Structure formats: C-alpha cells, structure tokens
Backbone:
C-alpha cells in the first residue's frame, strides 16, 4: 500500500471519530456552518431540509449526475459520507452530492424502508420513499441530470436504497447498499423493475447477517432477486477481486456511544489485500449491472479504503 493512501485513510478515520464524538457530545459547529466554508451548496426539501452540494467548477447550464448518500441508523449523512467517500470524488468526477436526513425515532434518525401496507398507510406513517423521490426532483432544478441519479446507503440507509429500487425502479440510474437488503416477503417488493444494483456485505456482520434471516434476504439472495427481475441467465464469481476494507477493526455507534469492533492490538493492522469476492449476474434481458460483493471477514461497519466509492461508482456506471 502506498504511504499516501495510508496517511489519508488514517486521517479519514480520525475525522470520522471526531465527527461521531461531536454528534454525541454536541461540541461541533452546525452542519451549515461547516459546509458553506468548503463549497457552494443549497438547502432543499422544505420542512425536511437536505444539503445539495455542488461540485467545484460547476457551470450553469450543465447537467451532471447526482449521488444521494443515505445514512445508517443514528448517524448523519455527513458522517456516513466521510466513511463511504462519495464527497472525496465529487469534484474530480463532477457530480452533485445530496445528504438527506431520516426522521427521528426514539431520538435516533433512521429511514422507513417498510412497504406501504395493503390497506394503506397507518396514522403517523413516514413516507421516506416519496420524500427522497421528491428531493431528487427538486435537485433536477439545480442542474442534476434526471437520467443519472444514484443512491448509496449504509445499513438502514442500505435497506432504504432497496425500498427506492422497489418503488421507483428504472427512474433512477443505480442503487448500491452496504449492509442492507430486500425483505423476504413477496409483499416487500411486489412489482419490481429491472435496475442496476450493487449489494455489498460483510460475511461476519452480526447486526444484519450476510446469510439473511430476521425477515430479509441474504446479500447474495438480494442480488439474485434483482438479477431475476432483469432476467439474467448466467453468473460468475471473481475471487478476491476488490480490496474494500482498510483496517482490521471497525467503528461502531451504539446507543449514543462510539465503540471499536475488534481487538485493540489490531488498531494498526491494515488490510492490504483484496478480500472481496464479486458475484456478477450477466446475460440479462435488460442491460443492467447486477452484483453482490462478498466482503470476507468484515462485520457491520467496515472502514473502506479510499478507492471504495470509486469502485462502486465505476461499477454502477457500466451501463451509462
């Protein structure tokens, strides 16, 4: 591994730790204060505001892609983006970045990825699918290309990504989830369309098990579900194709506390090998990307390498 990447990844983890600490202890400046010092942005979404960040060098009249980052339970869009890394690529690849926030449930932000009940939404139902779709529509007015809108989500945000794929299908260009999936009940996604999906999951995830259960499909079955929708007739597996993780340990956030998943002796043990198998579904009747990334040895909150989002971004755009 190059020294530059080692230093940058270490800095990212430290920044993430500071951001998480600020979230817990309330010592950070406000979201808007930090962002406006860095780049042009607007707040959209009305009563549920979200930051739409512009890539540097954006010229009025351009139409550029949009990446929407959906946070995990109890996190924020900004912290999730620090870990996933879309914001580090937006200037070079020239795309907008949208960081929405889920509604609070028992004091923690999350997303409602459940399907609408057959007899209609009950009182108090939060329509996050409709909210995020409307945000994307509003972003188009600022120069977003409506044919190049991508969603990536972690954990609760990953489940929300698949809810959007179920509800809005090919209206959006691609969907990627880390530690998320599709519900196992047919009612969870009754009328899906072929879409491009990348399903990324750690094999040692104890919170959202790789094999599935607890009312949801496993990672490989989630990818197979979308492949079947696209009528993909073949698949192949590339062993140790991608290096996703950077550290042997992971950052967690539980009940308002920062935790480290792993042994302290592993704190400076860096992952320098490709540990991720890529299962690709191909020969599809509809030209889509349909992959599962099996991140061997990773848990629920892997700390990705700098190139992680670039790998995801390049994969999702294969059908552009």
Residues:
């Amino acid at each position: 591994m190059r020294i530059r990447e080692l230093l940058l990844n270490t800095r990212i983890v430290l920044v993430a730790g500071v951001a998480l600490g600020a979230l817990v202890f309330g010592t950070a400046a406000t979201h808007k204060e930090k962002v406006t010092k860095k780049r042009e942005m607007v707040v959209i979404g009305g009563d549920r505001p979200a930051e739409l960040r512009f890539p540097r060098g954006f010229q009025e009249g351009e139409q550029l892609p949009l990446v929407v980052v959906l946070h995990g339970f109890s996190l924020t869009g900004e912290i999730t983006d620090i870990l996933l890394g879309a914001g580090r690529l937006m200037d070079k690849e020239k795309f907008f970045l949208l960081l929405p926030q889920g509604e609070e449930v028992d004091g923690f932000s999350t997303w409602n990825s459940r399907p609408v009940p057959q007899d209609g939404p009950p009182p108090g139902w939060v329509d996050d699918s409709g909210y995020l779709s409307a945000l994307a529509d509003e972003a188009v007015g600022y120069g977003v290309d409506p044919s190049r809108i991508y969603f990536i989500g972690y954990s609760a945000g990953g489940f929300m990504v698949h809810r959007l794929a179920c509800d809005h299908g090919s209206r959006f260009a691609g969907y990627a989830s880390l530690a998320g999936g599709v519900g196992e009940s047919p009612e969870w996604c009754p009328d899906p369309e072929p879409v491009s999906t990348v399903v990324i999951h750690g094999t040692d995830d104890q919170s959202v098990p790789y094999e599935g259960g607890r009312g949801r499909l496993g990672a490989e079955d989630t990818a197979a579900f979308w492949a079947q929708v696209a009528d993909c007739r073949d698949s192949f597996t590339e062993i140790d194709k991608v290096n996703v993780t950077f550290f042997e340990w992971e950052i967690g956030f539980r009940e308002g506390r920062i935790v480290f998943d792993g042994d302290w002796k592993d704190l400076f043990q860096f992952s320098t090998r490709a540990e991720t198998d890529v299962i690709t579904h191909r020969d599809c009747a509809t030209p889509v990307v349909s992959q599962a990334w099996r991140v061997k040895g990773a848990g629920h909150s892997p700390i990705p390498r700098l190139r992680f989002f670039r790998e995801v971004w390049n994969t999702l755009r294969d059908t552009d």
